[in-house]
Design a protein that fits this description.
single chain, two-stranded antiparallel sheet, 10 helices, 8 strands, six-stranded mixed beta sheet, 2 domains, alpha/beta, Rossmann fold
C-alpha cells in the first residue's frame, strides 16, 4: 500500500504537518509527504481542456504531484485554517483534482483521511476537505481536527491589537460562542478592558501550541492511520 500525505499549511513544521505525518506513520505502509507551500500548484482556470484527457494543461508542479496521487492507494490531506476556510494552497490542490475526477472519476475508490487545524473554524474546514475528496469518489476513512497556534500569538502586537483572531471570533462580534477563550486557557488571558474591535488587551501565556503536547490528539491521528491500514487490508 502507498499512502500520500499532503499538507496545505505554509508554516514550517506546523501542527498540520505533524498530524499528517503521524497518520502516515501509523499506516505502516510506504508513504510520502508533500508540503504544498514548497511547490507550485496554482488554481484551476476552468479551461475545460482536461475533459477528454483527464490531464490538466497548466504547466506547474501538479503534473508530477497528480501522478503521485494516482499511484497512491490512500491520500491524507491536511490544512490549516485561514479566514474560516482551508488554505489557498489546499484549495488550489483540491480544485486541480477536478482533472482526474472529470468524466472518468479516476480517483474513485481511493481511501482518504483529512486533518484540519485552526482556532475556531477547523470543523467547517474539515467538512470541506472531506466533501472535496468525496466528490472525487474517495472513501473517507476518518477526519480529525485540532487547535493550532493563532497567528496573533506570534505576530508581535497581538496582545494590544483590537482585531486579533480571539476578538474576530468573539461572541460580542459574531453573536456565537466559538469557545476560543475556553479552548486557549493556559495559552491566552483576555484582560478586563479588552473590547473586540475597539481596544485590544490580552496576555499571551504561551507563544506556541503543539499537538505533540496533547496525547489525545496524537492518539486520534494514530487511530486514523490504523483505520486506513485496516480498511485497505479488508479491501472494503
Amino acid at each position: 500500500m502507498k499512502v500520500l500525505g499532503i499538507s496545505g499549511s505554509p508554516t514550517k513544521d506546523s501542527n498540520t504537518d505533524t498530524l499528517v505525518k503521524a497518520i502516515l506513520e501509523a499506516t505502516g505502509a510506504e508513504t510520502e509527504f508533500v508540503k504544498l507551500s514548497d511547490i507550485k500548484v496554482g488554481p484551476c482556470i476552468a479551461c475545460m481542456k482536461c475533459v477528454h484527457t483527464n490531464e490538466c494543461i497548466i504547466n506547474d508542479d501538479f503534473k508530477w504531484l497528480s501522478k503521485k496521487v494516482m499511484e497512491a492507494d490512500a491520500i491524507v490531506l491536511g490544512s490549516s485554517t485561514f479566514y474560516g476556510a482551508a488554505s489557498a494552497f489546499t484549495k488550489a490542490f483540491v480544485e486541480r483534482l477536478y482533472s482526474k475526477r472529470h468524466v472518468k472519476l479516476l480517483t474513485g475508490g481511493k481511501l482518504a483521511a483529512t486533518v484540519a487545524v485552526g482556532v475556531a473554524a477547523e470543523k467547517m474546514v474539515g467538512e470541506w476537505l472531506g466533501n472535496g475528496l468525496r466528490a472525487g469518489g474517495m472513501d473517507i476513512v476518518g477526519g480529525m481536527t485540532a487547535k493550532g497556534t493563532p497567528c496573533c500569538f506570534v505576530c508581535g502586537p497581538g496582545e494590544t491589537c483590537a482585531f486579533p483572531v480571539w476578538n474576530a471570533y468573539s461572541k460580542e462580534l459574531t453573536g456565537m460562542d466559538f469557545g476560543v477563550e475556553e479552548a486557549y486557557k493556559g495559552y491566552l488571558e483576555l484582560l478586563p478592558d479588552n473590547k473586540p474591535y475597539q481596544h485590544g488587551s490580552a496576555r499571551i501565556l504561551k507563544g506556541y501550541r503543539s499537538v505533540k503536547d496533547e496525547p489525545e490528539v496524537m492518539a486520534e491521528a494514530e487511530r486514523i492511520g490504523k483505520l486506513i491500514k485496516e480498511k485497505h487490508g479488508t479491501g472494503k
